[in-house]
Amino acid sequence: xxxxxxxxxxxxxxxxxxxxxxxxxxxxxxxxxxxxxxxxxxxxxxxxxxxxxxxxxxxxxxxxxxxxxxxxxxxxxxxxxxxxxxxxxxxxxxxxxxxxxxxxxx
Length: 106
Prior knowledge:
By secondary structure, the protein is mainly alpha-helical. It has helices at residues 25-32, 35-57, 62-69, 73-80, 89-98, and strands at 5-7, 13-15.
């Protein structure tokens, strides 16, 4: 919660004129009920970045990775899109294995 009082430069307690001062970015999303979605999107973005980086190192296109996995190219494109969260864990695991990455759950 945001404190009702703030400290002045002189160290005196004064009323906090802005209810958002002292709040964290994370607490804002908690209050809005969007923290889980934010966490999911952050994790998805990190996975997409890791996969894209490895594909570039191995000079793989989404089509060649899809063939390697026996999957559809559109599935790989969804994996690489940080905003697409409707990708199955199985597809993600197969893609990571195909490029030599390990998927860690925390």
